[in-house]
Amino acid sequence: MSSSPLTPARAVWLVARRELNTRVRSKSFVISTLVIIALIGAYVGLIYFISQSNSKSTVGLTGQASAVAEQLKATAKGFGEQVDTVEVPDAADGEKQLKDGAIDVLVSGAPGSLRVLVKNSLNDAVRGSLDEVVRQQALDAQLAQAQTGLDPAQVRRTLAEARVQVDKIEPEDPERGQRLGIAIGLTALLYMSLMIFGMAVAQGVVEEKSSRVVELLLSTVRPWQLLAGKVAGIGLAGLLQMSVITAVALTAATSTDQLTLPGGQITGTLVTGVLWYLAGFFTFGTLFAASAALVARQEEVGSVVQPVMMAAVLPAVLTFLMLPRSPDSTLLQVLSMIPPFAPIIMPARIAMDVAAGWEIAVSVVLTVAGLFAFIRLAGRIYSSAVLRTGGRVKLRDALKSA
């Protein structure tokens, strides 16, 4: 740094650039990025392999439909699907078994006009198999009338119209699974980045404090400038890693047709995710730094930042557990508007398209207000405690002398 007076903005930028360059060029950054990318690639490959491999479905047959059991099994093999059939006493019992998960599909009706009931979706291979059974039944019926003469056009129309009628107990949102995947993936990346790079902020503060480097730095810049620059630089390193990982994951998912959402919808979700990441990292990063400033040894970092870590763990765990089952639950709705939980929960709710406009607006306002409050609090603690050596500084003492 130059000995000439620095403007506050330039001082923050110089510190941020130093932190960014240090993190990005480190072996740990490169290795962790490559490992995560490899894991994502392996996961996507596994999902693709499973989706392409033979699966198994249990089909309940009731009434006249029981006559097609063997034909259905044989036809399904041609579609790469293993089908087990069970006889169901009546439609009411079959619907109950569907809801309980005992069977995947309930088939009723005459062999030539089968009706299908599913809980929320029908396997493409099973649908194709049932359609083929109905077409074969229709063809057999036409051939049985061969003695009266066949109209080729009528035969073609009959076969073209021969398909099963499918009803659903709980109609499925066709995009829900993909939106849920994006929401969970986004939450995992946000949480992982906050933890990894938040701890990097804390360890960096203690390292500079224990080696007395901070005393040299503070002879040139003010404490708040050092704090802001450190958090910004390490946060940008985290954003860079998250962007690379996201790009690889999206490329893998789209190339294997596991992600087919419109590009505009994906882009909008990612842009909001970046904005929430920045708000979340500045909130948690400053709190990590302030907490770490209270101690002077690396061995004490884990215990002193425990409350901050729990504030990030709680919303992440709740999101992982509750979002797949009840994304519009009151608990997630409320917590997604309260800092510091909002930057972790709200992006997932936005990705799932369950967050109302007013909820997003309230969340943004409270998060920005909370961000300034947390930064001010962290700045006071950091300024007071970072130059104190020796034992652990009590939080109350740091606030009193600030």
Question: Can you walk me through this structure?
Answer:
The protein is of the alpha/beta class. The protein folds into two domains: 9-45 and 175-401, no CATH class; 56-168, 3-Layer(aba) Sandwich (D-Maltodextrin-Binding Protein, domain 2). It has 16 helices and five strands. A five-stranded mixed sheet has the order 2-1-3-4-5, sandwiched between helices. β3 and β4 form a beta hairpin. α9 (223-255) runs antiparallel to α10 (263-292), α10 (263-292) runs antiparallel to α14 and α12 (306-322) packs parallel to α14 (342-351). It is elongated. It starts with 7 loop residues before the first helix and ends with a helix. Residues 27-378 form the ABC-2 type transporter transmembrane domain. Keywords: Membrane, Transmembrane, Transmembrane helix. The chain crosses the membrane at residues 29-50, 180-206, 226-253, 274-295, 301-323, 356-378. It comes from Crossiella cryophila. Pfam families: ABC2_membrane_3.
The span between the termini is: 27 Å
Beta fraction: 5-15%
Radius of gyration: 30 Å
Number of helices: 16
Query: Uncertain runs with pLDDT below 50, 5 residues or more?
Result: none
How many domains would you count in the coordinates?
2
| Structural class estimated from helices and strands | alpha/beta
Q: How many distinct beta strands? A: 5
Helix content range of the residues, please?
55-70%
> If strands are numbered along the chain, what order do they take across the biggest sheet?
2-1-3-4-5
Mean pLDDT: 85
Which overall shape is indicated by the principal axes computed on the Cα atoms? Answer: elongated
Largest sheet geometry: 5 strands, mixed
Order of helices and strands: HHEHEHEEHHEHHHHHHHHHH
